[in-house]
Amino acid sequence: MKFEEKTISSEEIFKGKIFTVKKDTVKLPDNSEASREVVTHHGGAGIIAVDDDRNILLVRQYRKGVEREVLEIPAGKLEKNEDPKKCCERELLEETGYAAGTITDLGKIYPTPAYCSEIIHIYMATDLIKKEQKLDSGEFLEVISVKLDKAYDMVLSNRICDAKTVVAVLKAKQLIDG
Amino acid sequence: MKFEEKTISSEEIFKGKIFTVKKDTVKLPDNSEASREVVTHHGGAGIIAVDDDRNILLVRQYRKGVEREVLEIPAGKLEKNEDPKKCCERELLEETGYAAGTITDLGKIYPTPAYCSEIIHIYMATDLIKKEQKLDSGEFLEVISVKLDKAYDMVLSNRICDAKTVVAVLKAKQLIDG
Q1: β-sheet bridge partners, residue B142
Q2: What is the phi/psi pair of residue B18, to 5°?
Q3: Number of Cβ pairs closer than 8 Å across A and B?
Q4: Is residue B120 within 8 Å of B108, Cβ to Cβ?
Q5: Given CB atoms, is B11 within the 8 Å cutoff of chain A?
Q6: Given Cys at both, which of A110, B99, B145, B147 links B129, Cβ 3.0 to 4.6 Å?
Q7: pLDDT at A136
Q8: Residue B110: predicted pLDDT
Q9: Nearest residue of B to residue A154, measured between CA atoms
Q10: Using one digit for the tens of pLDDT, what is the confidence trace for A126-176?
Q11: How are beta strands B33-40 and B44-49 bridged, if at all?
Q12: B171 conformational bin, left if phi > 0, alpha if psi -120 to 50, beta if neither
């Protein structure tokens, strides 16, 4: 990597429950030094569940980062070294009460690679099996079902803005419709 | 908003150059209290420049968050209250040396709305006008030109993973090809 920034020193600034913040000093390709603020996060996984009638499941919940309710695919934060597929199967079941008969990998995204280590893995669930929703205490959300084509329109008209959900809807539609 | 989390108190943990970290106490819909860690960021803007031969411009640079080189559309961080369109026109010119004759709004994304306030605004530039690249000192990057259809394949095969770039390529292709 010809542009690599080699870390010379690293200082932990904040260790939270969701993320850690560190301040690194790096050596740039021209050998000068620079400072980098980085949010460290174990990563996440999200899953777009599509039923046999082309309905998808979305979760509406309040998101403190953007201080508003956001429509998202079921998703969760990975425990350290957790398998992202297992993580999102668990979240799908807990949040919506559905299990996936078939899971397809839709790739990964770096939400903000400049300053945050988070990688979000995205999957598609099909051949859904109805089981039972099991919300954690303190988790307030509403599950809604919309047609994939309507979700696609909602992405294009900015009513769905969550990055992993935008990517999941666009890729799932591409995969299903070709 | 029926799931709103009302902020009761807020404590600033870290004030950096790129982002600020705060720890808020919130009241949940059932009146219980919870703690929220939030990264505050002024937001960003990215622009996918498409020339008359369906080539797009991508920038390869090292990204400390994910500790690797990442292919991205030209983009920048907003100054407080800055117009995102002006921001990405400036970044496009500085990083690639091109000005946009026409700019189309491709919407916005929330990269990680659960814990980060950042909103990224995405635009498409067409009718490009060649001017001069003006990199900031300490900015090391390579500009590459690829066909829109190749970039689309790179999104589907996980070679383009940056969230704003994935969304820009998928939406630009949809807009141009219908």
Answers
A1: B60
A2: -100, -40
A3: 198
A4: yes
A5: no
A6: B99
A7: 81
A8: 98
A9: B107
A10: 999 999 999 888 789 999 999 999 999 999 999 999 999 999 999 999 999
A11: unpaired
A12: alpha
Residue in the block written with tokens 């460290």 = A40
Locate tokens 């299903």: which residue? A176
Q: At how many degrees (to 10) do helices A163-177 and A148-156 cross?
A: 130
ipTM above 0.90, yes or no: yes
* Beta strands at A44-49 and A120-130: parallel, antiparallel or unpaired: parallel
> Is A27 within 8 Å of A6 (Cβ atoms)?
yes
Torsion of CA A10, A16, A17, A19, to 10 degrees: -50
Residue type, A85: K
- Contact criterion met (CB below 8 Å) for B136 and B93: no
Q: Using the beta-carbon criterion (under 8 Å), do B3 and A166 form an inter-chain contact?
A: no
Proportion of chain A in helix, strand, coil states, percent, rounded to 5: 20, 45, 35
- Cβ neighbours of residue B47 closer than 8 Å, sequence gap 6 or more: B73, B74, B75, B88, B89, B91, B92, B100, B103, B122, B123, B124, B125, B168
Between helix A163-177 and helix B163-177 the angle, nearest 10°, is: 40
| CA B1/CA A68 separation, integer angstroms | 8
- Residue numbers in A near B6 (CB within 8 A): none
Phi then psi for residue A128, to 5 deg, are -70, 145
Place of tokens 């429950």: A17
Q: Which two tokens stand for residue A150?
A: 């309507």
Chain A environment of B142 (Cβ under 8 Å): 3
| Residues contacting residue A19 through CB under 8 Å, at least 6 positions apart | A39, A40, A41, A116, A118, B37, B39, B115
Backbone angles phi, psi at A173, to 5 degrees: -65, -40
* A166 three-class SS: helix
Cβ neighbours around A132 below 10 Å, total: 9
CB contact under 8 A, B115 and A66: no
